[in-house]
Predict the structure.
Amino acid sequence: MIGRLALAYARRRPLATILVVLLLSLGVAIVTLTLLVTHEIEARLTRDAEGIDLVVGAKGSPLQLVLAGVYHADVPPGNIPLSSLADLRAHPQISEVIPLALGDSVHGYRIVGTEPSLVAHYHGVPARGALWTKPMDAVLGSDVARATGLDVGATFTGSHGLADGGGEHAGQPYSVVGVLAATGTVLDRLVLTPLESVWNVHEHHSADRHDDDQAAGKPRDKLPSGAVPGSSVHDDAKAKAGTHEAPREITMALVRYATPLAAAALPREINKSTALVAASPAYETARLLTVFGVGIDVIRSFALLLCAAAVLMLFVALAQALDERRYDLAILRALGGTRLQIAGVLLIESVLLAGVGTVVGLALAHALAAALPAVFPPAAPLAAAAARFLPLEWGVVAGALVAGILAALWPAWRAYRLDVAATLADT
């Protein structure tokens, strides 16, 4: 009976009820959406960097090195000699080294020259076809295959940089020999090929450009070191030594420690005694999340402000409703209702409104997370968050219900102390 009475009272003031539910649902939706997005981002960053203790590359920003080598979200600072790979593999404190050669992309997805160990590191397995067996073979991540429509047997050419329109290597097509099953890691967004493919493409491109410049009578332009794997060194070597083959280069190497003790000495040793930079993905990711977290905290504070406004409005609505219902509540007391039952009507009404606002807010947050890729395509990997209910969301539910109870405490206390005789006499 008390629950039906509380529902009837809420329906008697539709405008106030709708405004309270709307404000609370918006606040809950924003808080929940930030939780979903930040949790998914942190989880993906953790998965992508799992098992990678160091990224070793050319001198430059360690954060740029990690963003380029682990998350493939930036351009690398430069290249390093292929001989560095052998030096790293010979080090007693290193158990595994995975080389990467970067420089080109296809439809915005990075082409990575590497070894099968990178696929094994992320537990990748072919869904169709197989891994590469020779240069110019390519294996697509699941997201790449879905977005581009390429499949086993197809051919494509790479373009310079990470964006379309960077100029294609039309004379050096890749052949798709495999498509990997989804792993939920950065592997899904990569095109993998042997190191030799990247070297061949850029050496061929450099040779063609040199021939064109000579035919046109133009002087050779010297590319900056590190522009693309193998190209700058090849140009310099050919300019100085005619047709001698250029030294090979890679862009960076992903390193795994042999023992935990290596973390204390190995990065310092590489940074001080070599021309390379050793960057820790764990440390650089923590720095990135610290910067990223400032914006998230601002959004979350705005959402909490909306929730506070909704609770305040709920408190005012209940306080005003109590003045309007004094006679009704006095009649209920006269008919045998207890003080607790009278106070319970207001408490149940407040919790009911808070509960409705919370449910609507949670549903809205998950719907927005699912629709986010349609509005912002680069956020497609975050859509997976829409299908999961995080344990932290129970905290949001509990917080909203507690806020509803707190908003009703003072009106409920006044209803509990209602003087029945005086109220009936006044009317």
Q: What stands out?
A: The chain has two domains: 2-45+294-426, 54-279.
